[in-house]
Every structure is written in structure tokens, then in C-alpha cells.
Amino acid sequence: MINKALLALAMVVATLAPATAAEPIVGNWKTASGETAAIAACGPDFCVTLKTGKHAGRQIGRMNGQGDSYKGEITDPAADKTYSGSGEVNGDALVMKGCVLGIFCKSQTWSRL
Question: 47 is in which domain, residue-wise?
């Protein structure tokens, strides 16, 4: 009786494990300017919030996606301008790209802390 209950519990845990795995974009990242940005789930999206520097505590982006590819908006806090953006995770590197009118783009690589 106990063995059946343990087996049933193990099966439930096994089916939930993949759903609770963190997305590769989640975590703390060192930005190109040397600040630390935290990326965390916020509803169905991922919010990018600065943890250090002059703009600490400010949310500078919101992205959605999964795996290694994300899209959304990113704000340059120094210029206070928001761009359509994307993020591509490759191991411990995150290439963030922001575009104006979809043609004038700039990218920078962030590293996982």
C-alpha cells in the first residue's frame, strides 16, 4: 500500500519537474556598462530590473519567450529611451539587441553572474 502511494507521488513529481524549471534568461547579469540587472518572471513575461548603479531599482525591460530566444522592450535608462528588443541566451552570455524602427539596431553582450 505504501509502495503504491510512493510510486504515485514520484510520478506526480516527475511530471511537474519540467514545468518548474527556470528559463535560461532568469538570473543576475552584468550589463555592458558594468551594472547588475536581475531578470525574473513577472506574470507570463520576464522583467529586467537594475540592481546596481544610478538607476538601481528601475525596471528597464519586459520580454517574453522561452529557451534561448526572447522578445520585448528594453529601455536605455541613461537616455530614457525605449526600444523594441530581443535577447538570445548562449550559455553564460546574453546578447541584448535594441532597435529603432526595426532597422537601426545596437547590441551588447551581458554575462551571467
Answer: 23-112
DSSP secondary structure of 64-104: EEETTEEEEEEEETTTTEEEEEEEEEETTEEEEEEEETTTE
Element (H, E) at 1: none
Q: 66, 23 in Cβ contact below 8 A?
A: yes
The pTM assigned to this predicted structure is: 0.79
Band (pLDDT 50/70/90 cuts) for residue 22 is: confident
Backbone angles phi, psi at 9, to 5 degrees: -65, -40
In the chain, the number of structural domains is 1
Is the Cβ–Cβ distance between 74 and 85 less than 8 Å? yes
Residue 29 counted as domain residue:
yes
